What we know:
- The protein is mainly alpha-helical.
- Helices cover 68% and strands 0% of the residues.
- The protein has two domains: 3-91, RNA polymerase sigma factor, region 2, helix turn helix motif (Rna Polymerase Sigma Factor, Chain: A); 109-189, Orthogonal Bundle (Arc Repressor Mutant, subunit A), CATH 1.10.10.
- It has helices spanning 3-17, 23-43, 46-63, 73-91, 118-121, 125-137, 140-150, 156-163, 167-189.
- Helix 1 packs across helix 2, helix 2 crosses helix 4 (73-91) and helix 3 crosses helix 4 (73-91).
Amino acid sequence: xxxxxxxxxxxxxxxxxxxxxxxxxxxxxxxxxxxxxxxxxxxxxxxxxxxxxxxxxxxxxxxxxxxxxxxxxxxxxxxxxxxxxxxxxxxxxxxxxxxxxxxxxxxxxxxxxxxxxxxxxxxxxxxxxxxxxxxxxxxxxxxxxxxxxxxxxxxxxxxxxxxxxxxxxxxxxxxxxxxxxxxxxxxxxxxxx
Length: 193
């Protein structure tokens, strides 16, 4: 791992903890997109997302002294945002994910493939609308994992750090999400399931 990002993280955290003017605002500016993305993909309600983002950054401010530099600050803040969104869904009794076993009860973890090209699927505007609708129809956890992996381009290990799930479980959610998307888009694109 490149030591520069951790050095940058250390400098920013030190500035925030030292109450350097503008430091916390810089932290919020730098990570508000990630925070919004994680929470919005999970809760899908703009008003709730705004409030939960504020709650997440309040929690970041309150708990920043606990950050130990053992992972990127981005991962730690993503984990806080995920935790806030997850608690919100639990309070509302919204299921986080569908079961990860197929109809025969077989664990899907070993059957992950990267053969579904998300970018190619968005080439046509109609397909893009269908893809967006299909992504929005995914359960919150699968929708979040899929977008963190494909749109935020986070590695599986970092997503595991954010969500607290095992890497194999992340792969299973990615597999399941891609299968659901293929099934939804197959009639329009001719993608073989």
